[in-house]
Design brief:
Oligomer: heterodimer
CATH architecture of the largest domain in chain B: Up-down Bundle
Helix content of chain B: over 70%
CATH class of the largest domain in chain B: Mainly Alpha
Number of strands of chain B: 0
Helix content of chain A: 25-40%
Number of helices of chain B: 18
Distance between the termini of chain B: 32 Å
Distance between the termini of chain A: 73 Å
Radius of gyration of chain B: 24 Å
CATH superfamily of the largest domain in chain B: Formate dehydrogenase/DMSO reductase domain
Structural class of chain A: alpha+beta
Largest interface: A-B, 58 and 61 residues
Bound molecules: iron/sulfur cluster
Strand content of chain A: 15-25%
């Protein structure tokens, strides 16, 4: 009797759970769809769609962007041991890319931040909603909620998420030099490039206090700001006249692993 | 056996006999678990930096253990449910052992996930903020369901035996009395119990299949090369049942020796399970071959990097050991009647368990260490912490199993007794229903076909 009652109840509970998750799934997909359909709405309510363009023909591989990102976003100082163990955190990182075939081989360095995919494979897999795509297309991490399972890290085809293997530390004087706008992450959580989201918040507050809407150039990530070769452009991709969307239409454009259908919002420019 | 043995007396004797080797074993296992606990405290304090994990090998031995242990869990409930539903009479003395493996190993598997979390203190977030689009949450759901169902499936057939112990062991009465739920063994009670067990046996099979399917989907739902495979679901389920039967055979062999159960666990039980194991060997090989051949033929560059890393690169020793352990050795041992003996089967089961662990390992690690982008990698060498926690996981399973066998009868007394009383009659009745209607039972042949052929 025990068992009978149990299994009937468990069956009902499971059926209900299945229905509920289906409903939730559909609601979530619809929520995302409505964000995508947003351009149809009134101009003022249209969310921005932030994106970056990196011109590899201009990039000299100087790594200024890497250092700027590291300082701006309170990333732990990479120690030689961490480097040897493969545990450094570097939201903006230079990867070697080889082009052409022997004898016309060309090697370059390619700055790779999080691509802020429009269809990120990393967000649906998070069991606790600790990584998600916000209405402006930025893919975000919620540090206080992340359980550190690293599923999103492994699901990202660009390997651009980083994990805090230990509590981040800085040598003595640097501890007092953190950027107050960016939270310091505890050990055991996942983090990645935010497109300097805190700068967007700043820019919006500034614009609001000036009584105007956001203008091109108000919101500039740290990597773009420091790039001496001006290889990085940034802006609203849905704004046809922004530098980013104009450059993004260049015939030299390409997306990283476009074939995966992740729709990255970082575009690369390079002479074929 | 010449005179009928009394299973009840035999089991109660071994349950109440606490020998020196028993205490030595428990002491040893506790020491291993203690060391693992020490390692875990270390990891909790410093973070996962104490493991060999790094970028891009974000998952390693803990996840391998998780998949392996959850796989073993299919020994039990699934096998015993199928045998029960098929009314295989020889199942009677082995179902309990199998079901116990399932329940215990599920906790060990889930424990390994906790070990892997960067923030185990926040593990409850999966219930507070569940994202049902995540395969990890599907895992949580199906494993919790499976644990619940298997505990019921273990407990229900235990009730009559607990009641028996309640009446036989007065000193443990406080304990068994509560668990027996006032069982008196009336025909009405029996009828309901059998119905409940039958229903659970049906329910538990799809749940078990869902469990390892979903475990495989944790990998297959990503777009990562050699994880993103459509056959992973059935492939993992087959592997799970395969390793599950191997674990069951090992447990049977060990219990048979230590508990002197030779009279109940006969060579025929091993032979039957051995044939099942042989079938699973072929199935597993078929799936592995299909998986690797399609990858090779498709020749997608990102996949081929990983393919060659496994077949001839740094992971070749693991791959070929796996091929020997899961294919060549068991196939030979299990096909030849001369080696399909109990010792032979113990050897085959042990190699299968080693091979299946390696299989999980070379699914997890080589894909991660060869990401699509040229990210610098520094290999993956597990540290003593990971080793200690893994050893602790195995020790915890052995300890719990040993203790379980001391507290509860590891062979179902009433079911064996029922088999003895009703089994022959039931089987004959069942066989008669297979025969064509309206004919007299065939007269005994004067000569068998075998004799004619000589
Ligand atoms: S690049 Fe990776 S981390 Fe960034 S949004 Fe895409 S999948 Fe997610
Ligand atoms: S590591 Fe954190 S953000 Fe990533 S999937 Fe796990 S819980 Fe979500």
């Amino acid at each position: 009797m025990e068992g009978l009652a149990y299994s009937r109840r468990s069956f009902l509970a499971r059926a209900l759970a299945a229905a509920a998750s289906l409903a939730l799934f559909r609601r979530l997909s619809k929520a995302e769809a409505s964000v995508r359909q947003a351009p149809g709405q009134a101009v003022a309510a249209r969310p921005h769609r932030w994106g970056m363009v990196i011109d590899l023909d201009r990039c000299t591989g100087c790594q200024a962007c890497v250092v700027a990102c590291w300082a701006e976003n309170n990333q732990p100082l990479p120690s030689p041991e961490a480097h040897r163990a493969g545990r450094i955190i570097e939201w903006m990182t230079l990867l070697p890319s080889t082009e052409g075939e022997y004898p016309a081989v060309r090697q370059r360095l390619m700055p790779v931040p999080c691509q802020h995919c429009d269809r990120p494979p990393c967000t649906p897999v998070c069991p606790v909603f600790a990584t998600y795509k916000n209405p402006e297309g930025l893919v975000a991490q919620i540090y206080p909620r992340c359980i550190g399972c690293r599923y999103c890290v492994n699901a990202c085809p660009y390997t651009c998420k980083f994990f805090n293997w230990s509590t981040p530390t800085w040598p003595a004087p640097m501890e007092a030099m953190h950027n107050p706008d960016v939270s310091v992450r505890p050990k055991g959580v996942t983090e990645k490039c935010t497109f300097c989201h805190h700068r967007l918040i700043r820019a919006k507050e500034q614009a609001a206090s000036d009584g105007r809407t956001l203008r091109e150039g108000d919101y500039v990530p740290a990597c773009m700001q420091v790039c001496p070769a001006r290889a990085i452009a940034f802006g609203d991709l849905d704004e046809p006249n922004s530098a980013a969307s104009q450059l993004g239409r260049s015939p030299r454009r390409s997306l990283l692993q476009e074939e995966l259908g992740t729709r990255p919002k970082v575009t690369y420019l390079a002479e074929a | 056996m010449a005179q009928p043995r009394d299973l009840e007396a035999d089991l109660i004797a071994s349950m109440t006999r606490f020998s020196r080797p028993f205490f030595l074993l428990v002491g040893f296992l506790l020491a291993v678990i203690g060391f693992a606990a020490y390692a875990w405290v270390h990891q909790l304090r410093d973070g996962l930096v104490v493991t060999g994990l790094n970028r891009p090998v974000f998952w390693g031995i803990y996840i391998t253990n998780f998949v392996f242990f959850i796989g073993i869990s299919h020994a039990g409930t699934l096998i015993s449910a199928i045998l029960r539903l098929c009314q295989a009479e020889w199942r009677r003395p082995i179902t309990r052992m199998a079901e116990t493996i399932t329940v215990l190993v599920l906790f060990i598997g889930a424990g390994n996930i906790i070990m892997d979390l960067g923030r185990p203190d926040r593990a409850l977030n999966v219930f507070l903020h569940p994202n049902f689009r995540s395969p990890l949450l599907w895992d949580v759901t199906s494993i919790t369901t499976y644990v619940t169902a298997s505990i019921c499936y273990l407990y229900l057939p235990l009730i009559p035996d607990i009641a028996l112990l309640r009446d036989r062991l007065p000193r443990r009465r406080w304990f068994y009395g509560a668990l027996a739920l006032g069982w008196r063994g009336t025909p009405n009670e029996r009828h309901r119990l059998e119905l409940a067990i039958a229903v659970l046996a049906v329910v538990v099979i799809p749940i078990a299949v869902s469990v390892h399917t979903v475990v495989s989907w944790v990998f297959a739902m990503t777009v990562q090369p050699m994880w993103h495979s459509t056959i992973f679901g059935p492939y993992f389920v087959v592997g799970a049942i395969y390793s599950g039967i191997a674990a069951l055979i090992l447990a049977m062999a060990v219990l048979r020796k230590t508990y002197r159960l030779e009279a109940y666990l006969k060579p025929v039980h091993f032979k039957n399970l051995g044939l099942l194991l042989l079938v699973m060997t072929c199935l597993w090989t078929y799936f592995t071959f299909a998986e690797y051949l399609t990858t090779f033929y498709g020749h997608e560059p990102d996949e081929m990097t990983i393919f060659w890393a496994k077949l001839s690169g740094p992971y070749a020793p693991y791959f070929w050991t796996m091929a020997a352990c899961c294919f060549a050795i068991p196939l030979v041992i299990l096909s030849l009647p001369a080696t399909r003996t109990i010792p032979g089967m113990v050897v085959a089961s042990s190699t299968i368990l080693v091979g299946m662990w390696l299989e999980r390992f070379i699914i997890v690690v080589p894909s991660l260490i060869n990401p699509r982008l040229p990210v610098p990698t520094s290999g993956y060498t597990p540290t003593w912490v990971e080793g200690a926690i893994t050893a602790g996981a195995f020790a915890a399973f052995l300890l719990l199993y040993t203790l379980f066998a001391k507290v509860f009868p590891i062979i179902s007394v009433w079911e064996v007794e029922e088999g003895r009383q009703r089994g022959i009659q039931d089987t004959v009745e069942r066989l008669t229903t297979y025969l064509p209607e309206g004919e007299a039972p065939p007269a005994p042949a004067t000569k068998t076909a075998w004799e004619w052929s000589r």
